[in-house]
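=== RUN LOG ===
request id: a7f3
mode: sequence -> structure
chains: 1
length: 151
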Amino acid sequence: MIKGIYEAHLPVSNISRSVEFYSNLGLELAHKGEVVTFFWIEKGKSWLGLWETDKVETPYHPSLRHIAFHVELDDLIVAKEWLEQRGIKVREAFGFELEQQPIVLPNSPQSHGALYFNDPDGNSLEFITPLKIDEEINFKMMEFKDWNKKF
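=== RESULT ===
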């Protein structure tokens, strides 16, 4: 029945600025409307809706105002430089500073590599890739470079 997530939504304070930001990430504009604007994440499979609203003032929590974009491992490894070339800074996450990212998340029995940054309104964005699926590995969150040496 369920094949994936088709859409996710974020509040933004300035749609023009957000269109520029998300276009800079390489997302394709799917629809620009008066109330909501959509970008394709994967054309025909998933998209991101941006709503210009005062709700952008809602305090951040991981359950709100967060999108994780699936990327391939090779892309995650170069993502920090790729973002910096576009004027986007990686942010601290889980106590790991930008120079320590990407990091590895131990969501046993899954392990994921991830890197975190914000959009212009402080919405939390993440590049994430699966590393191990259905494989129990006992470890604490760590830098990807350390994971790469151990596993």
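=== NOTES ===
The chain has two domains: 1-54, 65-151.
Helices lie at 15-24, 73-85, 144-150.
=== END ===
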